[in-house]
TrEMBL record:
PROSITE patterns: ATPASE_E1_E2. Mediates magnesium influx to the cytosol. The lineage of its organism: Bacteria, Fusobacteriati, Fusobacteriota, Fusobacteriia, Fusobacteriales. It is an enzyme of class 7 (translocase). It holds the Pfam family Cation_ATPase. GO terms for molecular function: ATP binding; ATP hydrolysis activity; P-type magnesium transporter activity. SUPFAM superfamilies: Calcium ATPase, transduction domain A, Calcium ATPase, transmembrane domain M, HAD-like, Metal cation-transporting ATPase, ATP-binding domain N. The gene is mgtB. NCBIfam families: ATPase-IIIB_Mg (TIGR01524), ATPase_P-type (TIGR01494), PRK15122.1 (NF011702). This is Magnesium-transporting ATPase, P-type 1. It catalyses: Mg(2+)(out) + ATP + H2O = Mg(2+)(in) + ADP + phosphate + H(+). InterPro entries: ATPase_P-typ_cation-transptr_C, ATPase_P-typ_cation-transptr_N, ATPase_P-typ_cyto_dom_N, ATPase_P-typ_P_site, ATPase_P-typ_TM_dom_sf, ATPase_P-typ_transduc_dom_A_sf, ATPase_P-type_domA, HAD-like_sf.
C-alpha cells in the first residue's frame, strides 16, 4: 500500500508542478463564471454526452497513475528475485561447476551429472511461478473486490437531470454538485457555494478545514493551494455545499502533477507483515550461523571441501522458508474471496489479520444497533399537542437543504406525504416555496437552517436541531397561533417532555422559525438568534431484531462492543439496554473533555456507551483504547466517523456510506448488520490461523533440522545425506505445504482474538524443534549401528570397512542416506498434522482434504523413489523390510512425544498457535 507524505503548501508549489499547470490553475481562478465556462467549452447545463466521450478518449479516465503499471516481464522478475531464490541460484552455479564443468574438463565423464542443476532449476521455477500465480490471483482478487465498491459524484450534463456517476468517469467541463461527506472528484473551480469548508490534509498535511468561495482571484502572489475558489482532487467536504466546474482530471490535476513527490513506494507494513519478516530473518540468521559451522565440520571430518560446500549450501536451502511469501499471499487472497462471499469486501488485504485480532468494536448507534428505518412518531407544539404546522415547517427545512439528507430528513418527508392525504395544507409545499439560502449543519452548532420564500414574498428562516442548542437561540415560542416569550417554565416543560421521550427510546429534535428575518439574500450563523420555538419532532429508530444476538455472538468471539454516538444519552441508554449492552454507565462528550488521558484510559475500560460525542472525541477514545493494548475496529458510515475510522486498527464501513467514510475504511460491508461482521471476523481468524500454522511449522522444523544436521556432521564419517537429496526433500515438502491455506481450523481457535506475537515463534521453535532432532538421531543410530551393518557389511560398522572397499562403503552410505531421506519426509509431513491443532490429530481434529491428499502424495512419492531408476540415479537404494517396521515405530513414538510436548506447551503458554 502506498502512502502520502506530509507536504506543506510551499513545498507543493516549489516541487515538480509543471509551470503550465500552475499557470492554468491561476487563469481559471481569475475568470468570471461566464468566461470560465466559455473557455472550458461547457455551460451551467454541463457538457454533452459526445463531449464527455471525446474527453475520455483524449485525457483518459479520471484516475491518478502512481508510476507505470508493472509489465508482465517485471512481475515475473520480481516473483523470482528474492533472497531465497538467490540462495538456490548460488547453489545451482556451484553445482554446475562441480558436477558438470570440472568433470568435463578433467575427462571424468562418470562424474558428470546435471541432475542437481536440473532439480535446483525446477525448485526455482516452481517457487517463482507459484509466487507469481498467487500474487496475480491476489492482485486480481483485490481489484475485483475494490470494483464492487463504487464511489460516485453528483454531476449535471446537458439534456439530463443531475445524476451520480463513478469518479473515474468525470471529465473536464462537468458541473459537479458537492455536499458534506463528498470527495472532491477532480480539480474544480467553485462557481457557487454556501459555507463551504473542505479538508486538504491529504494534500498539505494541514488538519484545519479550509473555506472555499466562489469569487474571482487576481492575486498572483498566492500559492495555488491558497486559491480559495479552487477545490483540489484528494480533498473532502467537511460542511456546506457548492457547485463547481471541472478544470483538470486524473494525472493533470494538482495531485496528479505532484504524485511522484507525494507518493512513496515504501510500503506501510502491518504488525503481521513485520512479524512474518522478523521470523524470516530469524531463520536466515540461524542459517548464516549454522551453514559455516556445518561446512567446516564436514570439511575437516570428511576431507572433501567441495562436497562439504555443496552440503552446506543444501542445508542453507533447507533452512530458508522460500514458500513463506507465497503461502502468506495465498492465505490473504483466499481469505478476501471467502469474506466477499459473506458480504464483506476487503479493500486492503493486509487488514485481514487485524480483523481477526480485533477485540473491541466501536460502532455508531444509528443503523448499526438500530433498524436504520427512522419513523417520525410525533410532531408536537411546545406543550405536547400534535401540530401539522410543525410538520409543515420541518418538511420545508428537510426538503430544501442541499447537504446530506439523513434518516431524520427522509422520515419527515415521508410523514408529510402521508399526512398530506388528510391535510391539504401539506400538499405540494415544494412548489409553493422557493429556497433563498441555507446555513449548513455542523457538529459544533448541531443544527441546520434554510430560508424559504412563498409566492407572496413572505420569507421564513426555519431551523431544526438538538434541543439544548435550539433553546439557546430561541427567545419566543409559538402556541395556539400566538407568539409569546419563551419563559424558563416553558423551557423546563419542554426539557421534561423531551426527557420522557428519550427514556422511551425516542430521539427528539426541536424546530424554530423566524418570519422575514432579513432583507438580504445571504444569511449566516449570526442570524440564528431571537427565533420562535415552534415545537419538536420525536423519532423512533428501534433496535434491529438481530442486534442483541449479534452482540452476544461477538462477545462469544471475544469482541467487546462499545457504542460511540453523537446522539442523546437517554435515547442511547434506552436502545443499548434493549440489545444487551451495559447501559448503567454512560460517558458524555463533555465529561471526556474534562478528563486527562490517564483518567480516560481507566474509564474507557469500564464504560461501553459514549454519547453526545464530537468526531474528535470519537477519535480520542479510539486512540486511548489502542494505547491500552487493544486491537480496535471502528464501524461507521458518516462524515463524523471518518477520523475515528482512520485512527482505528481497522476501519469498517458499508457500501451506502458517505464517500469519505468508504475512503477511510479497510473493510466494506455490503449489508449494514453486525451479523455480517461476525462472519467476517471468523474468516479473518481462519486466514490468520493457516498463516501462523505454516510459519510455526517451518520455524520449528528448520530449527530441529539444524540440530540434526550439526549432530550428523560432527559424528558421522560421511555426509548424512547428499546435497541433491536435501534439495529434493525440500522441494517435495514445500509442495505438500501449498494446501495449508485451504486447511480446516478448529472452532475453539476462532473464539479468541488472535494477535501477532513474534515471541511465541521463538518459544514454539525451542519446544517443538528439538523433539524432531531426537528422532532424527534415533534414525541415525538405527541405520548406522543396526540396519546398514546387518544388510550391507555383514555386521561390520562403517569405520571398520577398509578404505579400498569403496563399493561397500558407498552402499553403506547410500542405505544410511536413503533411510534418513525417507524418515525426514515422514516426520516433517506428519508433524504438519500434529502442529495444525492443539487437539488429538486424526481423532479430534482432521485436516482438510487438500492437505491430506498433498501430504499423503508427498510421503508416497519419497517412499517409492529409492525403488525407481530416478532413485538409483540419485544415489538412493532399496531398504529392507525391517527398516519400515523401525520407521513406523519411530514415527509413532515421534507423534506420541510431540503430542505430549504439545500439551505441556499449551499448559504453560495457554495456546499452541
Amino acid at each position: 500500500m502506498k502512502k502520502f507524505k506530509n507536504i506543506n503548501k510551499a513545498e507543493i508549489n516549489s516541487r515538480n508542478l509543471k509551470d503550465e499547470e500552475n499557470k492554468k490553475i491561476r487563469v481559471y481562478s481569475s475568470l468570471g463564471t461566464e468566461e470560465l465556462l466559455k473557455k472550458l467549452d461547457t455551460s451551467l447545463e454541463g457538457v454533452t454526452k459526445e463531449q464527455a466521450e471525446k474527453s475520455l478518449d483524449i485525457f483518459g479516465k479520471n484516475i491518478i497513475t502512481h508510476g507505470k503499471k508493472k509489465s508482465f516481464f517485471k512481475k515475473i522478475v520480481e516473483a523470482f528475485v528474492n533472497p531465497f531464490t538467490a540462495v538456490l541460484f548460488c547453489l545451482a552455479l556451484v553445482s554446475t561447476v562441480t558436477d558438470m564443468i570440472i568433470p568435463w574438463y578433467s575427462n571424468t565423464p562418470e562424474d558428470f551429472s546435471p541432475i542437481t542443476v536440473i532439480i535446483i532449476t525446477t525448485m526455482v521455477t516452481i517457487s517463482g511461478l507459484l509466487r507469481f500465480i498467487q500474487e496475480e490471483k491476489s492482485n486480481n482478487a483485490a481489484e475485483s473486490l475494490s470494483a464492487m465498491i463504487t464511489t460516485t459524484t453528483s454531476v449535471k450534463r446537458f439534456g439530463e437531470n443531475k445524476k451520480e456517476i463513478p469518479l473515474e468517469d468525470v471529465v473536464i467541463g462537468d458541473i459537479v454538485y458537492l455536499a458534506a461527506g463528498d470527495i472532491i472528484p477532480a480539480d474544480l473551480r467553485i462557481i457557487e457555494c454556501k459555507d463551504f469548508f473542505i479538508s486538504q490534509s491529504s494534500l498539505t498535511g494541514e488538519s484545519e478545514p479550509v473555506e472555499k468561495k466562489a469569487q474571482i482571484i487576481l492575486d498572483d502572489k498566492l500559492a495555488v493551494t491558497e486559491l480559495n475558489n479552487i477545490a483540489f482532487m484528494g480533498s473532502n467536504v467537511i460542511s456546506g455545499s457548492a457547485i463547481g466546474v471541472v478544470i483538470s482530471t486524473g494525472d493533470n490535476t494538482l495531485l496528479g502533477s505532484i504524485s511522484k513527490t507525494l507518493v512513496s513506494d515504501e510500503k506501510i507494513e502491518s504488525s503481521f507483515e513485520k512479524g512474518v519478516n522478523s521470523v524470516s530473518w530469524l531463520l536466515i540468521r540461524f542459517m548464516m550461523v549454522m551453514v559455516p559451522i556445518v561446512f567446516f565440520v564436514n570439511g575437516f571430518t570428511k576431507g572433501s571441501w567441495v562436497q562439504a560446500l555443496l552440503f552446506a549450501i543444501s542445508i542453507a536451502v533447507g533452512l530458508t522458508p522460500e514458500m513463506l511469501p507465497m503461502i502468506v499471499t495465498t492465505c490473504l487472497a483466499k481469505g478476501a474471496v471467502s469474506m466477499a462471499k459473506k458480504k464483506t469486501i476487503v479493500k486492503n488485504l493486509n487488514s485481514i489479520q487485524n480483523f481477526g485480532s480485533m477485540d473491541i468494536l466501536c460502532t455508531d448507534k444509528t443503523g448499526t444497533i438500530t433498524l436504520d428505518k427512522v419513523v417520525l412518531e410525533y410532531h408536537m407544539d411546545v406543550h405536547g399537542n400534535e401540530n401539522n404546522r410543525v410538520l409543515r415547517h420541518a418538511f420545508l427545512n428537510s426538503w430544501f437543504q442541499t447537504g446530506l439528507k439523513n434518516l431524520l430528513d427522509l422520515s419527515i418527508i415521508e410523514k408529510t406525504h402521508e399526512e398530506g392525504e388528510r391535510d391539504s395544507s401539506l400538499l405540494e409545499l415544494e412548489k409553493i416555496y422557493t429556497k433563498v439560502d441555507e446555513i449548513p449543519f455542523d457538529f459544533s452548532r448541531r443544527r441546520m437552517t434554510v430560508v424559504v420564500e412563498d409566492k407572496s414574498g413572505k420569507r421564513q428562516m426555519i431551523t431544526k436541531g438538538a434541543v439544548e442548542e435550539m433553546l439557546s437561540i430561541c427567545k419566543y415560542t409559538e402556541f395556539k397561533g400566538e407568539i409569546v416569550l419563551l419563559t424558563d417554565e416553558i423551557k423546563e416543560e419542554v426539557l421534561k417532555t423531551v426527557e420522557n421521550f428519550n427514556e422511551d427510546g425516542l430521539r427528539v429534535i426541536a424546530l424554530a422559525q423566524k418570519t422575514n428575518p432579513s432583507p438580504v439574500d445571504s444569511f449566516g450563523v449570526k442570524d440564528e438568534v431571537d427565533m420562535v420555538l415552534m415545537g419538536y419532532l420525536a423519532f423512533l429508530d428501534p433496535p434491529k431484531p438481530t442486534t442483541a444476538k449479534a452482540i452476544a455472538a461477538l462477545k462469544e468471539y471475544g469482541v467487546r462492543t462499545k457504542v460511540l454516538t453523537g446522539d442523546n444519552d437517554k435515547v442511547t441508554k434506552s436502545i443499548c439496554g434493549k440489545v444487551g449492552l451495559n447501559s448503567k454507565n454512560i460517558l458524555l462528550g463533555s465529561d471526556i473533555d474534562n478528563m486527562s488521558d490517564e483518567e480516560l484510559s481507566t474509564v474507557v475500560e469500564k464504560v461501553d456507551i459514549f454519547a453526545k460525542l464530537s468526531p474528535m472525541q470519537k477519535t480520542r477514545i479510539v486512540q486511548i483504547l489502542k494505547e491500552n493494548g487493544h486491537t480496535v475496529g471502528f464501524m461507521g458510515d458518516g462524515i463524523n466517523d471518518a477520523a475515528a475510522m482512520k485512527e482505528a486498527d481497522i476501519g469498517i464501513s458499508v457500501d451506502t456510506a458517505v464517500d469519505i467514510a468508504k475512503e477511510s475504511a479497510d473493510i466494506i460491508l455490503l449489508e449494514k448488520d453486525l451479523m455480517v461482521l461476525e462472519e467476517g471476523i471468523i474468516e479473518g481468524r481462519k486466514t490468520y490461523a493457516n498463516m501462523i500454522k505454516y510459519i510455526k511449522m517451518t520455524a520449528s522444523s528448520n530449527f530441529g533440522n539444524m540440530f540434526s544436521v550439526l549432530a550428523a556432521s560432527a559424528f558421522l564419517p560421511f555426509l548424512p545425506m547428499m546435497s541433491i537429496h536435501l534439495i529434493l526433500l525440500n522441494l517435495i515438502y514445500d509442495l505438500s505445504c501449498t494446501a495449508i491455506p485451504w486447511d480446516n481450523v478448529d472452532k475453539e481457535f476462532l473464539k479468541i482474538p488472535r494477535k501477532w506475537e513474534a515471541s511465541s515463534i521463538g518459544k514454539f521453535m525451542l519446544w517443538i524443534g528439538p523433539t524432531s532432532s531426537i528422532f532424527d538421531i534415533t534414525t541415525y543410530l538405527l541405520m548406522y549401528f543396526v540396519i546398514c551393518p546387518m544388510f550391507v557389511s555383514n555386521g561390520v560398522l562403517y569405520n571398520s570397512i577398509p578404505v579400498e572397499q569403496e563399493t561397500l562403503r558407498t552402499a553403506y552410505e547410500a542405505m544410511f542416506q536413503t533411510g534418513w531421506f525417507i524418515e525426514s519426509m515422514w516426520s516433517q509431513t506428519l508433524v504438519i498434522h500434529m502442529i495444525r491443532t492443539p487437539k488429538l490429530s486424526f481423532i479430534q481434529s482432521i485436516a482438510s482434504l487438500p492437505v491430506i491428499v498433498l501430504t499423503t502424495l508427498g510421503v508416497i512419492f519419497v517412499s517409492i523413489i529409492p525403488y525407481t531408476r530416478l532413485g538409483i540415479y540419485l544415489g538412493l537404494t532399496s531398504l529392507p523390510l525391517v527398516f519400515w517396521f523401525g520407521l513406523v515405530l519411530t514415527i509413532v513414538a515421534y507423534m506420541s512425544v510431540v503430542t505430549f510436548v504439545k500439551k505441556k506447551y499449551i499448559k504453560k503458554y495457554g495456546e499452541l498457535l
